[in-house]
Amino acid sequence: MFTIKSVSDEGIYYLVNGWDRHKAFWKLKENLKPDMLFKSAADAKRSLTKLLKIMPDYATDKFEIVQMDIA
Predict the structure, then answer these.
(1) DSSP letter at 7?
(2) Measured on CA atoms in the order 54, 55, 59, 63, is the torsion positive or negative?
(3) What span, in angstroms and rounded, lies between the C-alpha atoms of 45 and 52?
């Protein structure tokens, strides 16, 4: 499973798959659940691209695609 790690002045957060269902764009690592992750790196990247189109203020963060194993 994959997600996007965002590093900013506010801290380190991870992009949530299913924003509307989970009512959040970003979560702390310890709050992530398996259904909040993306099946592929491409899906995670596509989601970040969509988010940056509607919320360009995140564009100054540093992003990294990460693979995670959450049980």
Answers:
(1) E
(2) negative
(3) 11
Domain ranges of the chain: 2-67
pLDDT tens, N- to C-terminus, the chain (71 residues): 999 999 999 999 999 999 889 999 999 999 999 999 999 999 999 999 999 999 888 889 999 999 998 76
Amino acid at 70: I
> Half-sphere exposure (CA, 13 Å, Cβ side) for 56?
1
Could you give the CA distance from residue 56 to residue 28 in angstroms, rounded to a whole number?
A: 21
Signed CA dihedral, 70, 41, 66, 19: sign only: negative
Closest Cα to residue 31, out of 12, 54, 45?
12
